[in-house]
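Q: Convert this sequence to structure tokens.
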Amino acid sequence: MPRAKIRVKTKTSPALIDLHFHGAFGVDLMNPRDPAFESWNFLSRCLAGSGIAGFCATTLSEPWEVLLPAVKRLGEWIQSGQAPGALPLGIHLEGPYISPEACGAHPPHALRKLNFVELEQLWEASRHTLKILTIAPETAGSPEVLKKLGKWANSRKIHLSLGHSRATEEQARLAFQSGFRGVTHAWNALAFHQRSPGALGAALGRDDVSVELILDQVHVAPTVLRWTQALHERCCFVSDCVPAAATAT
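A:
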């Protein structure tokens, strides 16, 4: 079945930057067992050949004993400057502080409440390369904790993004007031109802919030993509690409 044409409102760019990217060409960015970074360097070359200039290496929620080493190795790779093609610009930590009711592909057993001790350990393990945190604000537990999170992230120049959440419109508004400046893959893993618009109701139309959209016309219908661009000025198109991408023969 032919795909509908989507008109993307964007400026001409010599290359692309993908802020939400888990892997491709059979390479998994959550695999910390490549001591020489060979597979990640291979991925960097392949991405450059596909028109990608840079990307944020995005993690998946995993138990602590898996997540921490993965973040550590990604931070070492980013700081090494070895990437021969597309540049890893930092780490996008997607989870584990997200809602089990909106976990999507994230394993429910790895999810948990927001924990500042863990966040600080992840920041240090990453060699200060954390750039984006996707968090469900309801995992913070209170407005005071949300404000603390906003200050913590702002002092480290980390972009807070609301995602994988069942936050109400009021909870989301408090998150944006506390320093959240993004919405992770809008319409996916977020609740919306005409009487209870949730996080999207709080986000759309705000000029201080960027909204991610996966543009493959599978995750979000073409009509909704058009609606979102009409309603919101600051849309960011991402791939949310996984290691199986570009492996079909």
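The beta strands are 16-21, 23-24, 27-28, 52-58, 87-94, 130-135, 159-162, 180-183, 210-214, 235-238.
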